[in-house]
Amino acid sequence: MNNLTKYVSISIDPGSISCGIAVFDSLGKYIDSFEVKVPNYLMPSTRLFKMRERFEVIWREKFPDTLANVCTLELLPPSKCAVLQNSAGAILSSGFIVADLPAKNYIAPPTWKSEMRKLGASGEVIKGKHTLNAIGWKYAEPPGDDAADAIIIYQAARRKQGKEIWIGDNISVQPQPYAEKKRKKK
Fold first, then answer.
1. What pLDDT score was predicted for residue 81?
2. How far apart are CA 141 and CA 134, in angstroms?
3. How many CB atoms lie within 10 A of CB 160?
């Protein structure tokens, strides 16, 4: 990738053996995505170490002299699977991400799925490349469903924040104003 600015935005779809990573410029335009995969047979703590190590190798290769100063993460429900819960932390500890992690940059699966439905995705399963195609994705196809989910998480978080989302070169979807829910009086 050439002509990258020094700072980019990153989105992480955590996983126990495969994390999806998507990278965007300061305007929210897609730059690239990739997946960080580690073998399932490794002990969980070793998997986390190898995940971070693999991320660092890929990042140095694809984005030299670049740091991520905005990070969007999937907000996972509590789980018994420590590797799944901690995989995003392994990536964050790489030193290539220098971002605050405000609550607005965490997005729960029901929320990002709802946002994708509003953009035209349908069906029982709202995930992966299928969903990107359903919303009219015109950029290069991501390498796998985990990378596609990282893109979806980022796009849904931007949409929820009322920001423009980009689905292709010079093709964007303008934000929709949110109607505030009225509280019922007791």
1. 73
2. 13
3. 17
